[in-house]
Write the structure tokens for this entry.
Amino acid sequence: MRRYWLIFAQAVTVCLAILFVVTTLRPDLLRLAGPASAPQAAAAGVRPAAGSGTGVVSYADGVARAAPSVVNVYTTKHVNVPLIPLPDDPVLRQLFGQMPGMSRRQASTSLGSGVIVSQDGHVLTNYHVVQAADAIEVALTDGRRDTAKVVGADPDTDLAVLKLATLRELPAATLASDRGLRVGDVVLAIGNPFGVGQTTTQGIVSALGRNGLGLNTYENFIQTDAAINPGNSGGALVDAEGRLVGINTAIYSESGGSMGIGFATPIDIARRVMDDIVKTGGVKRGWLGVEPQDVTPELARAFNLGADAGGVIIAGVMRDGPAARGGLRVGDIVQSINGKRMSDTATLLSQIAQLPPGERATLGILRSGKSAELAVVVGARPGLPR
């Protein structure tokens, strides 16, 4: 036994001596053999940086695929600039502002970003980037420039589609499905912040389904900590492989710059809006004709609901509307639509709006304490498309 112990001790001593020599003289051998990050990076869609060893991960391939499709959008509009300081009172400001000789027309320029989504010249951007613009110019990464016109816009999601005047056979983005996104996935934001030129920033998906921010009528944002700054609006949010997963739309900031809280419109929503605009010039949205209300603790007690019942109570149903024809009543609690659970009013309205008019939707409801399902034919929201 003593002999075996001596052999073991000597083997350990020799191994430690070899490790010490290698660590001192050739540490690069340990980096080549040890890290498992290269296979993991390959599985994630990124590759080791060229000439840097297998332990360093780069997103260069994804950026190279996505960057050519991201463009700079320059807009010009004319505004009335007062020649003298106007009073603080809004009525007086409007009165004096409309008087002849009190103001002059001046050209105002602004910048943003956009994403080429078709080879024939369609560009997806934010509505606020091109709102009220008198002239729009688009600059590609290869130096080409072209004028553009607005095909259509959807203020409810802050999206707009442009069409380039002459350029064709363009580098279109590869559109992914945002349904595969998870919190923690790596994403890259590409745009033109502050007009410095095309810039790529990296971060992760911080949250999904953000709403209640007061930015749009229908909110279902991807939240990311990838740096998004003024000028990034309308630019691309892509995954590690360079596939478009969202359109950068807004930031939360107290200073005007990035604070690590940015919001992007998911590409599945943007794709539907874009398709409707290209085909019809506007966006058709689903409509049921109901007045929903969040289930408060008081209402939950009144309806004898459990703590985890969830759902949205129907406070009003429009006569002869889609919901009324489908059998929905005041007091019903809608717990799901097509199997997707409804947690609050914003979620319910957003889900209804995404349903194509004419489609049959299955509503899971709670009525008088009993679960039931209703088949409702979705109507078209009145007044649309614009």
Remarks:
- Residues 317 and 324 are 6 Å apart (CA to CA).
- The radius of gyration is 28 Å.
